[in-house]
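Input:
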Amino acid sequence: MFEAKLNEASVFKKIVESVKDGFKNCNFDCSEEGISMESMDDAHIALVSMKLGVEAFSSYRCDRSISLGLNIESLLKVLRTANNNDVLTMRAEDDGDLLTLVFEDSSNPDRISEYNLKLLNIDQEHMSIPEQEYTATVTLPSSEYQRIIRDLTQLGDSITIDAAKDGVRFTAEGDIGSGSVSLKANTNVGEDEKSIDIAVEEPVALGFNSKYLTQTCKAAPLAPRVSLNMCKRIPIFISYKLQAGHFSFFLAPQISE
Amino acid sequence: TKKQKSMMDFFKPK
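Output:
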C-alpha cells in the first residue's frame, strides 16, 4: 500500500506542469524515502530528475517500492481540478492498476473529490549519471532566469551561456539579429533571494537549443532560485531546490565538431 | 557549425 498526503496540491501540480511540454509518460517511483521521477525526452536531449522526500508530505506510507506509470497529460487533467491549497492524498495498492487522487478543500471540509487514474506500464531505463564536479555555478532568481530565456528565445533558436568569474552572459543570434543579457555577480544585502551568485573556477561557455532551455524555465514557480552548473563539453545541470527535495534538468549541449 | 549532442553521449543506461 502506498499513501502520501500533501498539504498543498499545488506542489505536485507545479511539478507536473513543469514537465508537460517535453515528457509524455513518466514513472513516479515511490519508496520509503519518498517519490522520485526520472525521464528523458524523445529526442534524448533533456533529462528531468525529481525527488520529493518523505518530509515533503504531511503523512507518508510506502510498504513496498512501486513505480506509478502515468501519462502526464491525463495526470494534469486531474490535478487541474484542484484548488491550489487543497489537501491531496495519493493512494495505490501494491498490485493495483490505479492511482487514486483525493482532494480535500481546506476552506470547505464538506467537499471531497476523488479521481482514479489508470496506471501505465512504462518501459523506461534509468540512466547512470556520473558524479560530476562543475567548474562554474551560477545561482540566480528563477524569475530572472525565466525572463532571460523567454526574451532571448525570440531572437534565435540557440542560446549560449557564458560564465566567467565576474559575471554570466546569455547570448542568442538569429535571422533578425542578436541579443545578450549580462548579469554581474552581486549580493543584495538582506535580499538573498535576489542575489546573483557566481562561483567559477574556470570560465565555461556552452550552447543550447533554446526550446529545451525554455522547458527548464517552466519549473520557476517551484522555487525562488535556480542554479546553473556547467563544465566544458558536458550537459548543464539546472537545479531547483525544493523544501524537501529537488527538481532538476540535465540538458545536452551543442558542441562544435 | 555546432552539433546537438545527445544525452546518450554522456549517460549510459543503468
